[in-house]
From TrEMBL:
Belongs to the GART family. (6R)-10-formyltetrahydrofolate binds at R65, M90, R91, I92, L93, N107. Pathway: Purine metabolism; IMP biosynthesis via de novo pathway; N(2)-formyl-N(1)-(5-phospho-D-ribosyl)glycinamide from N(1)-(5-phospho-D-ribosyl)glycinamide (10-formyl THF route): step 1/1. Pfam families: Formyl_trans_N (PF00551). This is Phosphoribosylglycinamide formyltransferase.
Length: 210
């Protein structure tokens, strides 16, 4: 079984989906540790309830991004993970951090990348009048929200949608596709090579919708 460490900053509903999928055998792995940069993140309670080791590493106690990320690497590596999963971890990572976990660092981003990198993705999709929005799971590289996409899912945008309506619709898809991708990795079917995601020896196009 692969050892998975999950990084969070908030509610942790994706963390919950991953823990649940490990529990039911839909992921051939185990969440062995959770690290949050926010002390009162509800995801910590979810980890606690599931009996998963968890800890807070607050960025506020560090004078630089480099110093924080170095300590974060130390925390994570104590769990000897095979895979590190960002699940609503709302921090920009240093190149050193990203390189340390090259090829074994996944992120989920609430937009159809390369559209809407960064924050407020749901409101931006509404403001642009998009009829379709969605979510992307990708390998993390030094380019912010720019690493190779593994899997995307689309949702419709309705005329009366608020950002939170849309976020809720996207979350349902997140909870479906993140466990799928994590399981591919745990089954040794998914790798990154030369900035491309490879599944079962086939390079994945950027429009691999689930
Ligand atoms: C998710 O929607 C995820 O896509 C997003 O944060 C939310 C976390 O929800 N991630 C980002 O915006 C990364 N820049 P959760 O805490 O309930 O899993």
């Amino acid at each position: 079984k692969k050892r998975i460490v999950v990084l969070i900053s908030g509610s942790g509903s994706n963390l919950q989906a991953l823990i649940d999928a490990c529990g039911t055998g839909h992921i051939a792995g185990e969440v062995v540790g959770v690290v949050s940069n926010i002390a009162d993140a509800f995801g910590l309670t979810r980890a606690e309830n599931a009996g998963v080791a968890n800890q807070v590493l607050s960025h506020r106690e560090f004078s630089s991004r480099d110093a924080y990320d170095q300590q974060l690497i130390q925390c994570i590596d104590e769990y000897t993970p095979d895979l590190v999963v960002l699940a609503g971890f709302m921090r920009i990572l240093t190149p050193e951090f990203v390189q340390h976990y090259q090829g074994k660092l996944l992120n989920i981003h609430p937009s159809l990348l390369p559209k809407y990198q960064g924050l407020n993705t749901h409101q931006r999709a509404i403001d642009a009048g998009d009829e379709t929005h969605g979510v992307s799971v990708h390998f993390v590289t030094e380019e912010l929200d720019g690493g190779p996409v593994i899997l995307q899912a689309k949702v419709p945008v309705f005329a009366e949608d608020t950002a939170s309506d849309l976020a809720e619709r996207v979350h349902e898809q997140e909870h479906r596709i993140y466990p799928l991708v994590v399981n591919w990795f745990c089954q040794d079917r998914l790798t990154m090579s030369e900035n491309c995601a490879i599944l079962d020896n086939e390079p994945l196009a950027e429009n691999g919708y689930a």
